[in-house]
């Protein structure tokens, strides 16, 4: 199914869903593992980092696509990094202005968005080779997929590690939190569980798709 009036650019629903499902940055490509494991101790932190990365990814992809024919090949990577760093700096100041508590919780991982391989990879492999709308839709899909991945980990760890979600108590005073979930090993345990679930879902989807074609 093509988006209206964009058939000539080859934009389809799959352009967006590529990053959400088939090439999900967290559960399929396993990119950006440092922030994925480090900031997902709560749903708020995870969602905030996901949205910040989404903003930088979409903004930088749009600008890179717009100037893709003006940048000499010899300096394209350096140019992409400068553009990404500019939007990361803007994001850093915005988060600091909105909430110092959140800013301190995310720490240096905001600045490290600059070297997030998801963003530079999209800039080089997609935004620099496609028109603006297609680049933005693809970036939206990748950013949404990354945000979903972070939120899945953050919500799971907060629920089992603190008995809360977005700070709201879920199980009452009798619940004994699984402290390991908010410690570094808990991040690996939860990531492994989600990777297994996502793999099973993709295998089931592929099987059903094969049967449908038969």
Folded structure, characterized:
- The protein has 214 residues and is mainly alpha-helical.
- It has one domain.
- It is built from eight helices and two strands; from the N terminus they run αααααααββα.
- It has a two-stranded antiparallel ribbon.
- α3 (43-66) packs antiparallel against α4, α3 packs parallel to α6 and α7 (132-162) packs across α8 (184-213).
The best one-word shape is: globular
What are the low-pLDDT stretches, counting only 5+ consecutive residues below 50?
1-8
Kindly give the count of domains. Answer: 1
| CA-CA gap between termini | 22 Å
* Strand order, sheet with most strands: 1-2
Number of helices: 8
Q: What does the radius of gyration come to?
A: 19 Å
Task: Tell me the layout of helices and strands.
Blueprint: H1 13-22, H2 33-38, H3 43-66, H4 76-98, H5 100-106, H6 117-125, H7 132-162, E1 164-165, E2 168-169, H8 184-213
Antiparallel strand pairs: 1-2
Tags for this entry?
globular, 8 helices, 214 residues, mainly alpha
What's the gist of this structure?
With 214 residues, the chain is mainly α. It has helices at residues 13-22, 33-38, 43-66, 76-98, 100-106, 117-125, 132-162, 184-213; strands spanning 164-165, 168-169. The chain has one domain.
């Amino acid at each position: 199914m093509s988006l209206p009036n964009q058939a000539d650019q080859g934009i389809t629903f799959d352009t967006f869903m590529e990053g959400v499902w088939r090439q999900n940055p967290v559960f399929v490509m396993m990119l950006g593992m440092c922030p994925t494991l480090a900031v997902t101790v709560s749903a708020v932190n995870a969602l905030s980092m996901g949205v910040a990365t989404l903003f930088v990814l979409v903004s930088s992809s749009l600008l890179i696509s717009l100037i893709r024919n003006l940048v000499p090949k010899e300096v394209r990577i350096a140019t992409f990094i400068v553009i990404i760093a500019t939007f990361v700096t803007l994001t850093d100041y915005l988060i600091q202005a909105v909430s110092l508590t959140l800013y301190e919780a995310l720490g240096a991982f905001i600045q490290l968005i600059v070297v997030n391989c998801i963003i530079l990879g999209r800039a080089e492999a997609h935004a620099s080779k496609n028109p603006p709308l297609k680049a933005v839709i693809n970036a939206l899909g990748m950013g949404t997929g990354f945000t979903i991945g972070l939120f899945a980990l953050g919500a799971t760890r907060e629920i089992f590690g603190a008995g809360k979600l977005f700070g709201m108590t879920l199980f009452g005073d009798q619940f004994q939190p699984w402290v390991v979930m908010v410690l570094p090993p808990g991040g690996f345990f939860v990531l492994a569980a989600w990777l297994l679930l996502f793999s099973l879902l993709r295998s089931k989807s592929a099987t059903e798709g094969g049967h449908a074609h038969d």
